[in-house]
Amino acid sequence: MAVKNIKVRTMAELTAEGKKAEYLFWVGSAGSYDDRAKKISRAFVKILEYCYIDYAVLGEEETDTGDSAKRAGNEFLFQMQAMQNIETMNMYEVKKIITCDPHDYNTIKNEYPELGGNYEITHHTQFINELIKTGKLKVDDKIFTGKTITFHDPCYLGRGNGEYDAPRNVLNSLNGNIVEMHRNKSRALCCGAGGAQMFKEAEKGDMEVFELRTMDAIEVKPDIIATACPFCMTMLTDGVKLKEKEDSIRVLDIAEIIVESLGI
Q1: Which fold has domain 11-129?
Q2: What is the CA angle 68-69-73, rounded to 5?
Q3: Contact between 5 and 206 (Cβ < 8 Å)
Q4: Which terminal residue of the chain has fewer beta carbons within 10 Å of its beta carbon, N or C?
Q5: For a pLDDT cut of 90, what percent of the chain falls above it?
Q6: 114-148, pLDDT tens digit by residue?
Q7: How far apart are CA 216 and CA 208, in angstroms?
Q8: Could you give the 3-state DSSP secondary structure of residue 214?
Q9: Are both 11-129 and 139-262 of the same fold?
Q10: How far apart, in Å, are the Cα atoms of 148 and each of 100, 164, 188, 254?
């Protein structure tokens, strides 16, 4: 199936037609506004369209989950944003959510319920893994043959929620050479952007965390550093540039890797 001229529907548009979507695709602030992260959102939408998934977005009705506000200590702002989102999603009777952002995944899964937001939320790597397992998505295992790929575990997906297998299962379906950094899974080093660190200047001192993590990846001589978080994407891309490796190492989200394998 060729995926072209995609028109992403909003929940409001479907409601006006008396319809509902099975899934809400929660795009998130990074996926909506950051130019690099927008490419991840577009890639995942291509996968949803390719597999005929019944989904919609909130569009302008979606606001930030409040994750960064909470991590920075502004509980009041977090609750304001959370309550607004919960009210909107409950209005549309949202039951199932998919997101590409582990920070939003963690917040909606673990912190929204106490405010009245109870949803079945899935990270996009989990969703893609399930599509492959059930045969709804068949990747071309020749595109990445011979390519060395290493995966960086996002903190809020891995240590925060115990999901290590889904992204690796997806990558293993590609027939590439999947190699682990020496710090991986529960021992993986943070990219340095969590806890609202993404939005503050680096402190003076020793080597920054993102540089250390990039060095972990470079050690295994990858052709591709695979990520599953827009924050990690930013930090590792900066790290690869800092080490002047951008001509030999690509930093790609797993959704982007799958889209390349499908040629869509």
Answers
A1: Rossmann fold (3.40.50)
A2: 115
A3: no
A4: N
A5: 83
A6: 999 999 999 999 999 999 999 999 987 788 888 99
A7: 13
A8: helix
A9: yes
A10: 23, 19, 19, 14
Distance CA 225, CA 237 (A): 9
**Residue 248: C-alpha distances to residues 48, 221, 227, 243 (Å):** 30, 9, 17, 11
pLDDT of 2 higher than 60: no
203, pLDDT greater than 90: no
205 torsion bin: left (phi>0), alpha (psi -120 to 50), beta (else): left
As a whole number, the mean pLDDT across the chain is: 93
Give the amino acid at 246.
E
DSSP state of 57: B
Pair 255, 124: CB distance under 8 Å: yes
Bridge-based pairing state of the strands 224-227 and 177-179: unpaired
Q: Which two tokens stand for residue 16?
A: 């006006």
Closest CA to 188 of 156, 234, 153, 142: 153
- CA dist list (Å): 29 to 23, 33, 84, 99, 159: 18, 6, 15, 11, 22
How far is CA 121 from each of CA 21, 50, 74, 115, 127, rounded to the nearest angstrom?
Answer: 15, 21, 24, 16, 10
Contacts of 52 (CB under 8 A, 6+ apart): none
Q: What is the largest CA-CA distance in the chain?
A: 58
* Tokens (6 digits) for 35: 């130019």
CB 71 within 8 A of CB 195: yes
How is the chain split into domains, by residue range? 11-129, 139-262
- Residues 44-66 have pLDDT tens digits of 999 999 999 999 999 999 999 99
Task: State residue 176's pLDDT score.
Answer: 83
In the chain, beta strands by DSSP E = 23-26, 55-56, 96-99, 120-123, 148-151, 177-179, 224-227, 250-253
